[in-house]
Design a protein that fits this description.
The chain has about 450 residues and is an alpha/beta fold. The protein has 14 helices and 20 strands. It has a 6-stranded parallel sheet, with helices on both faces. Helix 9 packs parallel to helix 11. It starts with a helix and ends in a 23-residue tail after the last strand. Bound molecules: nicotinamide-adenine-dinucleotide and zinc ion (2 copies). Its cofactor is Zn(2+). This is GroES-like protein.
């Protein structure tokens, strides 16, 4: 799939963009540790050239914290198009400003900042409304334009389908248009509290807000990874009366029950999830949020269809959600989808008046200051609840399969570099993936 996608992209040429993915290397040829993609289930630590200021709005960061995301697993499984061997991954990271380009006005070397996972221009129609993920001017992918009619912003470390920008699972990273895409962090907010403003916090907040959770709602959440765990908390903060979480990983079900008070359904025990939801909630859900993953088909039919490339994505969660919500209920898709799924229950969607909302890639700039100032600083939302592990950057290649198999109760990981501070009080100490328990 990758070869065909890359060939087609080459044939289509590139779309115009105001920033470019290729970076200059720092003088002297010094290298840094970085995690690069080489093929399906094949990621490796490499020595990559340290980036230098390449365009005048650039900022170079020394990374003090990075992590792995469920979205990275789609890359690991080769499910996102236009990956190339040697691509540096990672779209969630923070750091200290190391160098600034001549046009950068608001940032100085030494300042602590968190990066948005998307690269926004700050000036287009979408950026004017802080819809940074939908920026029109930072992604050269004609393939995405061809498939979707329009294209998202460029993203860090997320294939050439989103611009081919080197990512932040590295010791240094170049952030184009730094004034727009970096948020300064106050001294009294730890790295562990700040890092997840990059993606997980705005993303989980966005699905709850964009799908319209309101006081009294009964909310179902498919998938209890970091996005689902945070979405459950946001739903409660927005007044949900009940949250029902669906997953099959025992540690994740238990985590949601004990830390957030979520009622759970283990779909390895209740194979008919919809039936179980109606037993728990005869009226049906008001809101359903898809925080799962399209690369884990549940049924034999969809495993076969996917293997035969008759579909790229699966509709199983979408169908469960459409059937489980009440008439005129709302369903939000924040889980990533890439292409096509067969046998969507379009009848139930139409007849019940279900509002099926593609939440899109979350616009980080729309929410990150609100989340920092109104929730993290006053202590209303402490993101450290989801951090289960901290590992050194050297372990990143081993972290991919460990996170993929969800071993040792892993939820969210803090990945440290030689530039990181010591772990904050109450947060996990450094461990090695080799020492994690396999169940
Ligand atoms: N739209 C965005 O801006 C955005 C940003 C970040 C992540 N995401 C997406 O959100 C999703 C969740 O991310 P994460 O980091 O929490 O991922 P994760 O892989 O850690 O968690 C996904 C969870 O879904 C569960 N799951 C799989 N199939 C399921 C099913 N049929 N029913 C119920 N649960 C099921 C898995 O067991 C797992 O616990 C991913 O698809 C990711 O790509 C989207
Ligand atoms: Zn992410
Ligand atoms: Zn823009």
């Amino acid at each position: 799939m990758q070869t065909a996608a890359n060939k087609f992209q080459e044939y289509l040429g590139t779309e115009p963009a105001v920033v470019h993915a290729e970076y200059k290397h720092i003088e002297g040829g010094a290298s840094m540790k970085a995690l690069a993609w080489f093929g399906t289930n094949d990621v490796r630590m490499v020595a990559a050239p340290i980036p230098d200021i390449t365009e005048p709005d650039d900022v170079i960061l020394q990374v003090t914290g990075t992590t792995i995301c469920g979205s990275d697993l789609h890359l690991y499984h080769g499910e996102i198009m236009a990956l190339q061997k040697g691509d540096i991954l990672g779209h969630e990271f923070m750091g200290k400003v190391f160098k600034v380009g001549p046009n950068v006005k608001n940032l100085k070397p030494g300042q602590r900042v968190v990066s948005s996972f998307q690269i926004a221009c700050g000036k287009c129609e979408y950026c004017k409304e802080n819809l940074s993920s939908f920026c029109d001017r930072t992604n050269t992918s004609s393939l995405q334009n061809y498939m979707y009619g329009q294209r998202d912003a460029g993203f860090f470390g997320y294939s050439h389908f989103t611009g081919g920008f080197p990512g932040g699972q590295a010791e240094y990273v170049r952030v184009p248009i730094g004034d727009v895409n970096l948020l300064p962090i106050p001294d009294n907010i730890s790295d562990e509290k700040a890092l997840y403003l990059s993606d997980v916090l705005p993303t989980s907040y966005h699905t709850v807000v964009d799908t319209g959770v309101k006081p009294g709602d009964v909310v179902g959440i498919w998938g209890l990874g970091p996005i689902g765990q945070c979405a459950a908390r946001w739903a409660i903060l927005k007044g949900a009366s009940r949250v029902i979480g669906i997953d099959r990983i025992p540690s994740r079900l238990q985590f949601a029950e004990s830390k957030t008070g979520v009622e759970t359904i283990d779909f390895s025990q209740f194979s008919d999830v919809t039936k179980r939801i109606y037993e728990l909630c005869p009226r049906g859900l008001d809101v359903a949020l898809d925080c799962g993953t399209f690369h884990e088909p549940k049924t034999f039919t969809h495993k076969i269809q996917k293997t035969l490339l008759l579909e790229t994505d699966v509709p199983e969660t979408i169908n469960e959600m459409i059937v489980s919500v009440r008439k005129m209920g709302r369903c939000g898709l924040i889980a990533a989808y890439a292409g096509f799924a067969n046998a969507v229950n379009v009848g139930a969607l139409m007849e019940k008046g279900v509002r099926l909302i593609g939440n899109g890639q979350a616009p980080v700039r729309k929410y990150w200051e609100e989340i920092l100032n109104e929730y993290i600083i006053p202590g209303k939302f402490d993101p450290t609840f989801m951090i289960t592990h901290r590992v050194p950057i050297d372990d990143l290649a081993k972290l991919y399969p460990a996170f993929d198999k969800r071993i040792d109760g892993v939820e969210k990981v803090f990945v440290e570099t030689r530039f990181s501070s010591a772990p904050s009080s109450g947060c996990p100490r450094t461990s090695r993936v080799d020492d994690w328990k396999s169940i």
